[in-house]
Design goal:
Elements: H1 14-27, H2 43-56, E1 61-65, H3 73-90, E2 93-97, H4 101-107, E3 111-116, E4 119-123, H5 126-147
Parallel strand pairs: 1-2
Antiparallel strand pairs: 3-4
Helix pairs in contact: 1-2
């Protein structure tokens, strides 16, 4: 945590590590900040750094758990575009966990929705996700009303 962006640890040989670090810092737009420490960066820059660190090590699969949740909408949109560019240009696989159905539909080739621990739904199109979302929300609203002692069918 006390090293600069450029000197972050990696198991690769030094020359290869430095070349990969410079390449990925450039690709995520952080090359001018290579001498900075991570805590000197904004939240969006730290997210880009995390992506660069994972990718510089040669990872073929990334697991991203709510990576853009705390970012403002402009930074989030930029990072989503960056992630799509990286996946298409480098053939990376990303397992992306999010609570945002719109984010999932925008980023994913395939969407898996978990409504309960024992239930998984797999979708391959935006229309299927939206249809499922409406049914799920309607069922959740009905359940909430019943728990509050309100008959959802009475007028």
């Amino acid at each position: 945590p006390y090293t600069t962006l450029f000197r972050s640890g990696s198991p690769l040989p030094r020359a290869r590590r430095e070349a990969a670090a410079l390449d990925w810092l450039e690709r995520v737009g952080l090359a001018p900040f290579a001498s900075y420490h991570p805590w000197e960066l904004s939240g969006g820059m730290q997210q880009r750094l995390a992506m660069a660190r994972a990718l510089a090590g040669g990872a073929e699969v990334l697991l991203m758990d709510e990576p853009f949740a705390s970012l403002d909408s402009l930074t989030k949109a930029g990072l989503e575009d960056l992630l799509l560019d990286i996946c298409s240009s480098d053939g990376k696989t990303v397992i992306f966990v999010t609570h945002g159905i719109e984010e999932a539909v925008f980023l994913a080739d395939r969407v898996v929705v978990t409504a309960e621990p024992a239930y998984l739904a797999r979708f391959t199109s935006t229309n299927q996700v939206i249809s499922y979302q409406r049914r799920f929300l309607a069922a959740a609203a009905q359940d909430l009303l019943l728990r509050l002692g309100i008959d959802p069918y009475s007028r």
